[in-house]
Backbone:
């Protein structure tokens, strides 16, 4: 798996713990999805837009079906099961969404990547990224 980045920002982030949690969860989900194919690409792009920082994480994995996409941000939803058939409980996209909304007054969406894969677009308030906040 090849991970590339295109950082178009000079923003200094003080509140980095939450930001790293969000990015790492999405990237690790992409790595797991691509792993079934044995090779693929994940791209992380950042762009400053007025008062926000936009982060776009895309992959060329198998993608997310529309049926599953409806549920990925809901608490308790998972597509992952361990060897015993128990649901795997990582941080989950529902918690990622909570962090994005509550810590950074932002938004997160998921769409299809063409020709295959998924794209997560995250928009975060730049001021809150630069403010040390612990809740």
Residues:
């Amino acid at each position: 798996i090849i991970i590339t980045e295109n950082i178009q920002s000079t923003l200094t982030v003080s509140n980095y713990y939450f930001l790293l949690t969000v990015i790492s969860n999405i990237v690790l989900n992409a790595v797991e999805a691509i792993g079934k194919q044995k090779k693929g690409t994940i791209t992380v792009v950042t762009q400053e837009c007025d008062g926000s920082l936009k982060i776009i994480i895309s992959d060329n994995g198998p993608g997310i079906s529309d049926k599953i996409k409806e549920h990925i941000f809901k608490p308790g939803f998972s597509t992952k099961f361990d060897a015993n058939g128990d649901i795997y409980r990582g941080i989950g996209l529902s918690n990622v969404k909570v962090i994005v909304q509550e810590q950074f007054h932002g938004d997160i969406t998921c769409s299809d990547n063409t020709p295959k894969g998924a794209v997560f677009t995250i928009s975060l308030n730049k001021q809150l990224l630069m403010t040390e906040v612990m809740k």
Remarks:
- The radius of gyration is 15 Å.
